[in-house]
Structures are given as C-alpha cells and as structure tokens.
Amino acid sequence: MALEAGRWYPFGVHPVLIALADVGPGIQLEEGLTLAGMPATWDASFADGPRGGGTPTVVLVDADHLGGRLTEIAVAWRDQVWVPGVVAIGNSEAARAQAPHAKVTLVSSTASIQTVIAAIREAAKLRLASGMRWAVLRAAVKLPPIDDTPAAWQATLVAARTVDIDTARTALRWHANHYVTPTARLDALREDRLLTVPELAVAAQIDGTLTLQSVLAAGPLDSMQAARLLWTLTSIGALELTPEVRDIATPPRRKLHELRAHLRARAARLERSTFYDVLETTPLAEYPEIEASYRLVALRFAPQVISVFDLADLAGTVQPMWDLVEKARGVLLDHAQRGRYHDWLRSKLPELRSVWAVEASNAASAIAAFARGQRALGDGDVHKAMSELATACRHHPGHPDYEANLAWARYRVQVASGRDRVEAATAERTLIETSILGCRPWPRALVALALLCLAAGDADSARWHLHVALSVDPSVPAAAQLAQRLGMRR
C-alpha cells in the first residue's frame, strides 16, 4: 500500500484507503481525491477487510460488495490499533439497511467528490468516538498502542481525565438509554486504588439498574467529568452498556428486567382489548371484586410504584396505561356507564381481542371447575385435577390461575407416565411464564410457577416467585408451606 505509516499530512488532510472491490469506481475515487489534495490509494485486496499494512486515517469500504457483512467489517477496521474512520460507499438496499448498525455514513457511489471529502473529514473527526475499546481509548488519549494489562491502567486513566470531551460525548451518545453494569474489572480498579474519591462515588451508584443518562446526572462529578469517566471505564471493560438489563444476578436487576417485560407484554395485551381486560376481571365482578382487581393492577403498574425504576425507553408507556386503568375502573363502577359500555361491547366484541369479556355463565362454570380441580390436587388425584382444570380453561381460556394450575397438574400426570421431570417441568414453566406476562400479580399462579421452577432445578426462581406471591397475599397456604420448605424468611 502506498500510504506511509507515520508520515505527516497537513491539517485537514487525511490519508485514505479506498477498499472498493471494482477497479472502475476505485480508480475514479482515487483520482478525484488526489486532485482535491487528499492522499488516497485504491487497493481491492482490502475489500473484505483489513489484512495488515499501512495506517490510513479513513477507509472507504464497499457497502454493496459487503452487504450483510458491512457491520462486521466496519468493526474489524475500527479494531485496528490506529483506529481508522470508516465511510461506506454504495447504493444497494442492503447497504442502506446495514449502515445504521455499522454506525457509518453511507455515501452513494455517484456522489460528488466534495460530498465524499466531507464524509471523510467527518469520519476522521469522529473516528475515536466510533466505539469504546482499549485500542480506541489509547489512541484518543494520545498514548502508544500497548496490551491491555493492569500495569497500563493507571497511566491510561490519568490521561483519560483530560481527553477531548467531544470524543467521550459522541461515543456515549449512542448509549444514552442503555443500562450501565459493572464488571469484575471495576472491582479490580477499586482494589488497586486507581480511582479518585469522586470517581468511586460515581462507581458506587452503578448496579445495572440505571441508564447512562441517569448516572451522568446523578453526580457528584459534573457532566463533563462523569462523561469522561464512564467513557474511560467502558473502554477499559470495567462497565458494560446494554439496551436491556444485562442479567438478573441481583434482585434489583431481576425486578427491573421483569417489569420491563411486563410493560411490553401489557401494551400488547391491551391493544384492542376491553375494560375487563384492563382490570383482569370478568363481567360477573361487582364493586368488591373490581376494587380488588384495581389494587392488584396498581401493585405492579401504578406510576407511583413504577417511578422508582429507571425504565429508559419504556418510561413514556406508564402513564397512558395507567390512565386506561383509571378509566376502566370508573366505567365499571358506575352502573349507568357500565350499561352503556355493555351495549357498545356487544356490537364491537367480534373486532376486539379479549381474555376477560367472557359470558357470565362461562365465567361461573370456570370458577366451579377450578375449585373442583384445586380440591382434586389437594387430594392427590392429579388425573381428575387435570380434567377439571382443563374444563376451567375451556370455559375461560387465558385466565392465569387456571392456566398455571393446569400446567402443574399436567406436569404431575406426565411425570407419573414416565416423562423426564426436568424436561416436563421446563416445558410447562415456559407456558406459565408466557401466560402471566403483562398481567397483574396472581398469587396462585405464581405458586404453581414456583413449584415448576423447583421441579426444573431452579430454586432461586422458585423463591423469587413465592416472594412476589406472598407480598401480594400472605394468606395463600400453599405459598407459605413451600416458602417454609425452602427456608425463606417471611
């Protein structure tokens, strides 16, 4: 390659590698850039990614040639120790689809040379903000490439405290609503006493339940210092930024993870639904049942309950969903409004999706069958229990208590017939988890789910679901008995 490593170029002039597969556009771009005073070399051997040799400031990649590999190859270029900027050249549908994921500017192959030069200069300017990795960090703080070892951390951290703030802000901009989670390396930095007291205070707040923008605003560092710190720690690998809660290793993370899943599922459930689905109660419900349902929905979805969580992109869904709960309660508690709503519902029900707007006779039959099924389970007659619970589900399909207890009875029948316990429990557990997602807490369903988690070998999840069940209704006998068996404190 003709570009010389270490050669000085005038300010605003960037050595460019044109990694296009076809000779025609490659030579044309080379000539145009050279005439404009920008050193450029076309070399088709780089069309499929870096292969050693030369240190261009910017690489023009062939988006049409790479197609679905554009993101992969862009990352490969940015992983080079000199961290080149990347510009994509192409016109295809695949190129347009891939460019945002690859975080590259896509320039048409028929664009003017001035447009290409503008994209090159922008890529050169932002090349050190294209990602947060050790090699990029070292380049951004103007330190030579070196292996990522504990011996190199202190000098790198010190230099990073004065890095160009635009580099840190631009790199972090993509992750404003991402959750910040500490890794084992953050503990290592603490143990080696490489962080200042204010930096330690920021780090102490990071537990995987706060988004980047929340951590930046929390203090005690000002926003610029905090941005530099979070950019540095992420580049070193002491933090991870993820669009969803990274794992459920701690109770706060698990609770946030589940709440986000419930909010998404509830939005889907309530689309074209009824007021009975909003409160998860049947047309048989009178004042006490409606108020009880309202309180249970509030335990999970009321804004005052949810406000303590950093919901990131889902925060805007909370109030509209709750407004619908309040409206449903108001209509169903007012006899005149409820009557008019039933008149409307009779004509519109075929167009709606509903679990709860069942015929009163079906709801009553389901309640009776469920009670018989529960008694049969208590008596140890699992075949009769499964039959009665299946009847309840036929009369009222989708009811969390009915579906969950049917899954538990079905598991017991399958195991009695010789099926592997873990395999059967895992399959039935998945069905229950799907059936209760987006719903208010249903203690008896959670007990059945806890039993299946325990049968599948997941005692931690069993304890978690029992804790939720008992926090809603401490009087559920089966929950209390199982909690005692698992050594849970109440």
Enumerate the strands of the largest sheet in spatial order, edge to edge or round the barrel.
2-1-3-4-5
Structural class, please? mainly alpha
Can you tell me the CATH superfamily of the largest domain?
A: Tetratricopeptide repeat domain
CATH architecture grouping of the largest domain: Alpha Horseshoe
The number of domains is 4
Beta strand count: 7
Query: What share of the residues does DSSP label as strand, in percent?
Result: 5-15%
Mean pLDDT: 92
Structure notes:
The chain is mainly alpha-helical. It folds into four domains: 16-128, Rossmann fold, CATH 3.40.50.2300; 135-242, no CATH class; 251-351, Helix Hairpins (Orthogonal Bundle), CATH 1.10.287; 360-485, Alpha Horseshoe (Serine Threonine Protein Phosphatase 5, Tetratricopeptide repeat), CATH 1.25.40. The chain contains 25 helices and seven strands. It has helices at residues 23-35, 63-66, 70-78, 93-102, 113-126, 134-140, 150-160, 165-173, 184-191, 197-204, 212-218, 223-236, 251-270, 275-279, 287-301, 303-306, 318-333, 335-348, 360-379, 382-395, 400-416, 421-436, 443-455, 459-472, 477-485; strands spanning 16-19, 40-42, 58-62, 85-89, 105-107, 179-182, 239-242. The protein has a five-stranded parallel β-sheet with strand order 2-1-3-4-5, with helices on both faces. α15 runs antiparallel to α17 and α21 (400-416) runs parallel beside α23. The longest helix has 20 residues, at 251-270. The radius of gyration is 30 Å and the shape is elongated. Residues 1-12 have low confidence and may be disordered.
